[in-house]
Amino acid sequence: MSSIFDQTYHNYLMKIKRLNLQSLSKKIGTEWDGKRMKLKLFTRHFWVSEKGIFNVSGERPSHSEVVVIANYLIRYPDKKISHRGKWLHYRDFKDSAPLLDAFHNNVERKLSLYFKQNIESLVKSCKNLDGISYGEEWGYDVGFLFNALPDISVLLLFNDVDEMFPAHCNVLFKETIKHYLDMESVAILGLILTDYLLS
């Protein structure tokens, strides 16, 4: 399995080498130190250069982090995208069907089960991830907005268990995310959010 991950990493690196990272860094609005781009994924920082993708400790990130960061850079649009689009559930995006069950089970259902009857822990985890309280008008017990990557926001909405219904979590994305990530990467971004909140 590790050899498959290594090959995937190598393939992404070949594509990254064809990018003008300095120009892309300026377009994104992130730090450039002369040789490397610094990119923030939720609250974690990564360095990207022709030599690879590394965390601040100089280690290769998790496979999930690599996939999202690489695809984000490779697909970053040439033209500025308006961010006034609607919030959508994963199922509302074209081409999401093959991963819809996995997204529900490994993101929303997992968060629902972990944080049910534990709202205080969820709020603390969201704040630790620089989440901003959001979405009171949605009618949920908890709502937090996250800046996952530059130009990419994620919205978490959570209702705790009560006498009528089980705990329920929705993770939403702006419809404009389709310009930055493919649907597999969007699903993986949901997994990263889940892992970070549970860590």
Shape: globular
| CATH first level of the largest domain | Alpha Beta
Total count of strands: 8
From the 3D coordinates, which CATH architecture of the largest domain would you assign? 2-Layer Sandwich
Q: How much of the residues is beta strand, in percent?
A: 15-25%
Describe this structure in words.
The chain is α+β, with helices and mostly antiparallel strands. It folds into two domains: 74 residues, no CATH class; 112 residues, TATA-Binding Protein (2-Layer Sandwich), CATH 3.30.310. The chain is 40% helix and 22% strand. The protein has a five-stranded antiparallel beta sheet. The chain is globular and about 55 Å long. The two termini are 24 Å apart. The relative contact order is 0.16. The mean pLDDT is 95.
Brief summary of the model shown:
Helices cover 40% and strands 22% of the residues. By secondary structure, it is an alpha+beta fold.
What keyword list fits this structure?
199 residues; alpha+beta; TATA-Binding Protein; 40% helix
Topology:
Elements: H1 2-17, H2 21-28, E1 37-41, E2 44-49, E3 52-55, H3 63-75, E4 87-89, H4 100-115, H5 119-128, E5 132-133, E6 142-149, E7 152-159, E8 168-174, H6 183-198
Antiparallel strand pairs: 1-2, 2-3, 4-8, 5-6, 6-7, 7-8
